[in-house]
Fold these 4 entries.
Entry 1:
Amino acid sequence: MTTDKIKNRYIILAFGACVQFCYGIAYVWSMFQPYAITKYSLDTSAANQPFGIMLGVFAIGNLIGGFLQKKLNATFLIYVGSTIMCLGLFATAYVPVDKPWLLNITYGVIVGLGCGIAYNTLLATMQKWFPDKRGMVTGIIVCSAGLFGLIMNPIAQHFLVTGGFTIAMTVVAGSLYVICISCAWVIKAPPKGYMEDYRPVNIPTTSKQYTIREMLGTKQYYIIAFSFMLAVPAYFLINPMLMSLGVDRGLSTGVALLGVMLVSVMNTTGRLTAPWISDRIGRKPLLLFLFLFSTISVSALTIATGNLFLILIACIALAYGGFMGMYPTISSDYFGIKNAGVNYGVVMLGYAICSVGCPYIVRAVKLMPMGTAFSFVIAAAASIVGFILLLGLRKPE
């Protein structure tokens, strides 16, 4: 690998991180949710549905993006996905008051689809440029998406207060489109044969480049996919209602907003640090730790109030960020980098099912004696099962 290639790939990574920042759009919905409830006369569960649908379709978009990478170049796909995403945001801003169900289509389906196509393309491209630093670069890229909430939440809150739902969503949509269009042109796939023989010394990786059919024939796929599905309910059940839930647990509106920003910081921290640490201690040990950490945090959340509630929410966000950084990395470790985009899209199918189902779980548990707190019990149980399932994961062939 020449010096020029080393320099060029870091330039591509820097621009890729800027674009990836925009794909953290899901993490701003908790700011819009209370305003959507007021504007469209929704209950909490109905206001959470666009978030859940968006994440589910996002996973499907990842799969579509993985397939399209074989036929279309990365730059074009990122432009297409980003444009679809921003058009969905603009449409969300102008959903009529008497048609709130359209939020599920504009924000849930259109934004999720465009975001997923572009996200998968960008992530797979960066991993191909850095097979020697896969954990580090995956952490940087997914961390960039996590930064979205930290930077955009206070901006969105300002425009929500001063201009309302429509103005704030329009500002977010316009800002993201400018960033995506101005930065995506730099992002290219590496030349054919680039570092294809590289093998890390301290991380077990496969020497085989699995196709989807071959991957689906392995036990490792089902362990990885189902454990991913079980890793994320703790965050999915809480994130879209962070503001309202924080106020219910004794926080002032100002402190609840601070909590939303803290969650973004911890989500970002987990995304950045977990893959980097796993390069040194291994993927499986760190994933097992994250499952235990998440189980303890979400279990304690059932009775927590005030500042303890805030701390536990931050811990859950840290674990979630770690999971989001780890699973793209472990997927390419076990099934190869050549088809990493489409393979990771298939790994994310469990994630999609979980994200769509979580809002309905919240709605159902409200009818139970423990109310919303019972959803935390469900999330803790999912984390425990995920931990047990992951114990059976063996080294790739």
Note: DSSP finds 17 helices and no strands in the chain.
Entry 2:
Amino acid sequence: MKKILSQEEMETLLKGVEDGRIATSTDAGSQFGVRHYDFREGVALYRNLRHFQSFSERVSQNLKDVLSTLLFKTFEISTTPPEVLNFGELQKMVQQGSCAGILRIKSDSPPGLFIFDPVLIYLLLELYFGGKGTAVQGEINENPLTPVKERVMRKVLKMITEQLNGTIKEYADLEIDLDKLESNLSILNLYEPDDPIIKTEFQIGINEATGRSLFCVPPAVVKSLRVSYPKVVEKERAITPDDRVTRTLVENLMNAEVEVVVELARIELTFEELRELSEGNVIATGKALDAEVTVLVQGVQKFRGQIGNRKGYQSVKITRVD
């Protein structure tokens, strides 16, 4: 049963308050570092993560387009759901030797990050210089970026930034600029260790080789996506079913692989001449070394080209379209 003060006790309490013997200060909480917190901010952030996930899927397609355009290869990219973590946790999960592109997004907020791990850097460099993109054998050298690595990765990140700028316009009125590259995330003072950051991860694969890339932005960017997000919904609603079918067909057509054959020469031999060929014989083509060759696409003559050498590999330079 609750205890109720008697009339005499209440009078004593009021008298004590009046003469100052009983303290009535309400700022006692300040000595414990109490601060105001609006729980609605956290709710709004998590609600907008679905907008950021939609944006990340578009970024994944941008990344695939950039790498395919630059390296003339078809990549497979999968995206993980966005995750909220603090900057200290992010620093621990990024390997030494990674390449982080520092992205300026909003003047009044910390920058974003686009990070490539050492395995992915190795894979991209191998493809850039004419390799086949095989799986990495053994450990990757985790040294800081060399001038060659930095030049290639800056080119990749600059192309990605240009794509990001076009995509983010559909979600918010923001601009993205590539500031600089950094190989050691632990020395960056972009955030306090406890500051939150939003991360999404891309697994990038070709043949049997796979690498990882991280795209990270401050919470302020995620919150701003809700401002223009309805534009994306309206745009999707404006697309008719026929338009969707057409777009799907075009995308599938553009990603279809075709066989390209360079025909050096065509020579007619009798069966007896063919039967007598052996190792070391030379077949004269009747063509000069600088003569044009025919390029066939799926067995159909489509281009004319010039045989040459590029980065240590035999290559064909297209000279005209048939």
Note: Residues 39-71 form the longest helix (33 residues).
Entry 3:
Amino acid sequence: MTAKGASQDLTQAIKEIALRSGAALVGVASIDRWDPQPPYGDRAPRGHHPRDFVPEAKSVIVIAQPILNAVMDAPAVLADMDIELIPPDIKYPYLEVLYNTTGHHLQDEMLQFIGQILGQHLMSSGFDAMVFPTTGIHPRLPDASIPEKQIWQGPSRQWSDQFSPFRYSPGPFSHRHAATRAGLGEFGYNNIVLTPQFGPRNRFNSIITDAELVADPLISQPICLRDDCLLCQKACYMGAITMRDDPQVKDYRSVPKVDKARIFIDTPAKTDPVLCNSRRDRIAEAPIRGDCARVCPVPKERTHLPKRLQALMEEWKSRP
């Protein structure tokens, strides 16, 4: 035991099991890190705080797997080509499925599996544990006459109290916010968590427990390149990413000023997922989803990029 009573042995065992089971990264956050933190004072929405799931929660374990670089880049590059065996009218849907299957669904299933393994170990050690789906939940609506999109998205980009403030079906627990609190990374300008190892190319999951584990230190140096980059926002084809202090876009996440000198434990940006997900409906040859992560030069510049992103990267590299 450490001086504060946290179990060093159990913490080490949990991390070893996670890594042995396929996690690439694992971190631990103490429950006090869900108290609102400066400068924004963001709080977990009611029903989404760790103690809403485990009343005596003391720790949150966060696990991550990377999206492989070629999995992220190749579908976008192939979208610029005539693919010999794929009819042109289904090329984009085909590549979207390729990316989603190997860049999201695969990690989602594996991270849920690892979470269950860790939960079983905690339970066998006498502790409670809560595991989660890696992504959002899409319930069947009891009233089939109500369009599902209306429930989540509302009638327009401007949020009203009648609809979900997130404009999509959220997960029960924010793994991104848990990841920053477990010391795995910080939010970037693209509203995605960046890790030193994989930049924004990560998928996360969380396990809440009443075991008192040894918390990892928070990130102490910026990972996002901030105003020296801005590639993610330039790459967003639909203009769906804005900073939280953008005076043109007001909603519940708006703040007077984004403090760029701080580590982004809470996100400095906001995204409109409806704009992102409807890009193909509005622009027939819009790029494959994920350009805001694809173009990020953290941890290193990418070279296998579609033409549009290559041009952005070259422009950025040649800046004064």
Note: The mean pLDDT is 91.
Entry 4:
Amino acid sequence: MLDKIKGLAKKYAPEFIEVRHHLHAHPELSYQEFETSKLVQQQLRSFGIDYEIKAETGVVGLIKGKNADRRIVALRADMDALPITEENNIPYKSKIDGVMHACGHDVHTSCLLGAAKILNELRNDWEGTVKLIFQPGEEKNPGGASLLIKEGVLENPKPSAIFGLHVHPGLNTGKMSFRGGKVMASADELYITIKGKGGHAASPHLCIDPILIASHLIISLQQIISRNNNPHNPSVLSITAINGGTTTNVIPDEVKLKGTFRAMNEEWRFKAHELMRKMATDLVSSMGGKIDLLIDVGYPSVYNNEALNELAMEKASEFIGKNNVEETEKRMGAEDFGYYSQQIPGCFFRLGVMNKEKGITSGVHTPTFNIDESAIETGIGIMAYLGSSVVFK
């Protein structure tokens, strides 16, 4: 089976590199993946794979092998792009102003389509059922994964495990990386409005200065991490935007702050929310101001089931050789794959796409991000191999 999959991945790689080129040239933002969804549907129909639509642009396919009830595994790819203007000089450069596949979702979708074609072609050679999840809106709250789960994507049939692949621009092509347990952080957005009393900057005693209050609050919020969180528990609180005032001699009426809070422990995450609310309210009030604080709860942390991760690493070692399988570092970035891994055992792993000799080294979410496209053959193959061979109950 391994040799068959490898052979077909090599055979079909050029076809799905072309699919990736089309997707890359025609990116669509989160929850607007209508043309991308149509392409995925057209591809699945051409393979003879049944599918249904969920969350408007999501596509969920089902491939049944022999003894379809013996095992059920889900494979997931995301489809949305980012609001970034591409700076690459390539034939398949984005044709959509200000929109770019800068996080590799075009690669993820192409790899899963290739794996689907192989799995369907070899369906008499493997046992069980594979659920294909082409997901919208990974880049934007509330996260396409949460919408699909609400619409029953993990039911009828319910998978015993789910795998997700993501490009890794810091890992050489031909390699993959895995990690069991905590892998990526949760991500919550902070929106704060501090209301004071504006006036002449030369008469601060007649004002309630929201800029001064904001300065104290920004510094004080850091104590939530440094003095309340276990130092061994990764967590980040960053204020990333300050807006208030227009000129040199006027104290404004209000200041707006934005930021992000990240954590890898769900219990600490929500405890920190309460600490933030109390500290912010008490501090602003003590300085005479008022506050509106919104903590927009986003994606949960990504937790890889340890046993499933070990099994996936074994399969990856069989596929590309043990020397090409590495351990992924913990990341404070977020991924809505965490919604799936809260519900069923999940494994989210990385596909190497870097090639320094070709100058392909840019990170994700940058205007020059690109991949060494030989990685697509590897991505197609490993997704097909995991889908056809992993037994996890």
Note: The CA atoms of residues 239 and 259 lie 4 Å apart.
